[in-house]
């Protein structure tokens, strides 16, 4: 077994729902990120067809313009040679992190030398769908179903508690943990403040690439003023704690990573940004999906052979403030040395959560943070609807 490494990363700015990227098709967004990450490795050149063994691409929806293997569509639109194969994977919010796990395994087993992993989502352009009737030409009306987010066309065999809305599921986590509305709002404000500061510091300048024809210079959902967070009404229960301000927004965007063996880096003339040191997956009851990263992180750390006390940076996708806080609280009990190392450059509540792109975003951010701080070990984790979680451990070899 060989090691796998992260060599390059690029993503688009993340746009708001119906915002700056609303007119961009998801396959075009995917092609933008894919083409940009290839451009960051001059060693590819005209040998790209031979250099790239596989593109593994994540997408959660796949009900509209992102249908029919959007990863392959991105390859064809990006200018990469038609000889580069691609597949699209769907683990909902964890799709592009799953792409990283799958691509790194291909490299470590010797089935591939270079894999581009990433993902895309246009939640704005997710279509309404009409289910086919059980028989032809029914006389009654049929309702269109939005595919933007959440359960749709639910199987009647599913227990009702499993298919509650994502917001209601996280209100249940608030009930279970006692995490208050005030704490959630404080966490959300921190996310915006740190993301805004990161952009002002230039942290994201080397990670984010512009989208042609779109005037968007930074992630569109970041708020410089968070004073209104405490005034927002609850979104899912009249007496609830979750609002539009302490949950991630709906977004559009794409992200891509180049993974490879050590020999591939030497051949392409680039040093690795990080080594992929451990992977973890977990599953539990669907309504408790928000805390699935707890177990996934534990599995990834065990496979990397390290403990929580050694972790110097954490990127946890902020689907909701309450589930993020529940995960961090559990990790503190397990040995996380300082909660301040979690999302120190902002999180998804501010930056955005285009479902299929978020996993690749947090991996890229984690690698950049490790190199910025000189820390050796970092962990990226994400919760996934329908009761799953994923995590990956990165090693900054320069700090070894």
């Amino acid at each position: 077994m060989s090691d796998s490494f992260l060599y390059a990363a690029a993503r688009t700015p993340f746009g708001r729902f119906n915002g700056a990227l609303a007119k961009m098709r998801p396959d075009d967004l995917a092609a933008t990120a894919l083409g940009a990450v290839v451009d960051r490795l001059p060693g590819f050149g005209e040998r790209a067809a031979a250099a790239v063994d596989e593109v593994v691409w994540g997408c959660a929806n796949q009900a509209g313009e992102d249908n029919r293997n959007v990863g392959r569509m991105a390859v064809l639109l990006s200018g990469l040679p038609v000889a580069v194969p691609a597949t699209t994977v769907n683990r909902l919010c964890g799709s592009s992190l799953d792409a990283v796990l799958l691509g790194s395994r291909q490299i470590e087993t010797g089935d591939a030398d270079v894999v581009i992993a990433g993902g895309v989502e246009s939640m704005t352009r997710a279509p309404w769908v009409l289910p086919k009737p059980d028989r032809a030409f029914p006389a009654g009306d049929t309702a269109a179903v939005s595919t933007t987010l959440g359960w749709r066309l639910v199987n009647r065999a599913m227990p009702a508690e499993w298919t509650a809305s994502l917001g209601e599921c996280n209100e249940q986590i608030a009930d279970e943990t006692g995490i208050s509305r005030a704490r959630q709002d404080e966490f959300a404000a921190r996310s915006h403040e740190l993301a805004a500061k990161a952009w002002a510091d230039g942290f994201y300048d080397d990670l984010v690439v512009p989208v042609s024809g779109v005037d968007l210079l930074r992630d569109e959902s970041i708020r410089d003023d968070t004073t209104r967070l405490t005034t927002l009404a609850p979104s899912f229960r009249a007496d609830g704690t979750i609002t539009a301000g302490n949950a991630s927004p709906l977004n559009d965007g794409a992200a891509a990573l180049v993974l490879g063996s050590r020999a591939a880096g030497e051949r392409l003339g680039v040093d690795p940004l990080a080594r992929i040191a451990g992977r973890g997956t977990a599953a539990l009851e669907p309504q408790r999906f928000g805390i699935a990263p707890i177990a996934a992180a534990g599995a990834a750390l065990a496979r990397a052979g390290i403990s929580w006390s050694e972790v110097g940076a954490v990127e946890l996708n902020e689907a909701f403030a309450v589930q993020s806080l529940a995960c961090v609280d559990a990790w503190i009990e397990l040995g996380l040395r300082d909660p301040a190392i979690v999302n120190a450059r902002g999180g998804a509540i501010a930056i955005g959560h285009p479902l299929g792109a978020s996993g690749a975003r947090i991996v890229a951010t984690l690698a950049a943070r490790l190199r910025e701080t000189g820390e050796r070990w970092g962990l990226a984790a994400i919760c996934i609807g329908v009761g799953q979680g994923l995590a990956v451990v990165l090693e900054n070899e320069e700090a070894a």
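The chain has a mean pLDDT of 96. The domain at 274-395 is CATH 3.40.47.10 (Peroxisomal Thiolase; Chain A, domain 1).
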